[in-house]
């Protein structure tokens, strides 16, 4: 994680956390994640391409406060793997899990306005841009205005039916 994405300021530029300066920081994050896996609503995974065999990024979903069936999707991968459809594929798998097994009613995702590639990932997964002004998000890297995307269960089901011919 440290070497493949967490230490790269280009990868973390628009994320809520800054690039890790040491592998100890990364180890602390991984230990925290591991301590949370016993919780039924904790979702964080490594993205590991079969042909590479090592983690190149992470993807997770968090519950939005007070909304028990609305989740927020987040992802990041190392720069060498940008633009290959990997985040869209991983996001699609997570959306399937959230709608089919977890029972979410809606999943949202946000991207900083300058990070257009992340918006394209969301669109490839069937998410649509919400008709609302960009939201200000304060991060360790500064204040960013973010575009909000959403996919609700009925939209997902309609898209899934078209893809499978059902």
In words, what does this structure look like?
The protein is α+β, with helices and mostly antiparallel strands. The chain has a single domain (2-164), classed as Aminopeptidase (3-Layer(aba) Sandwich). It has 6 helices and 7 strands, in the order H-H-H-E-E-E-H-E-H-E-E-E-H. Strands 1, 2, 3, 4, 5, 6 and 7 form a 7-stranded mixed sheet that branches. Strand 2 (57-64) and strand 3 form a beta hairpin. It is globular. The model has no long low-confidence stretch (mean pLDDT 92).
List its traits.
single chain, 166 residues, alpha+beta, Aminopeptidase, seven-stranded mixed β-sheet, 6 helices, 7 strands, globular
Provide the fold topology.
Layout: H1 2-6, H2 9-12, H3 23-36, E1 43-47, E2 57-64, E3 67-77, H4 86-102, E4 106-112, H5 116-124, E5 128-129, E6 135-139, E7 142-152, H6 153-164
Parallel strand pairs: 3-4
Antiparallel strand pairs: 1-2, 2-3, 4-7, 5-7, 6-7
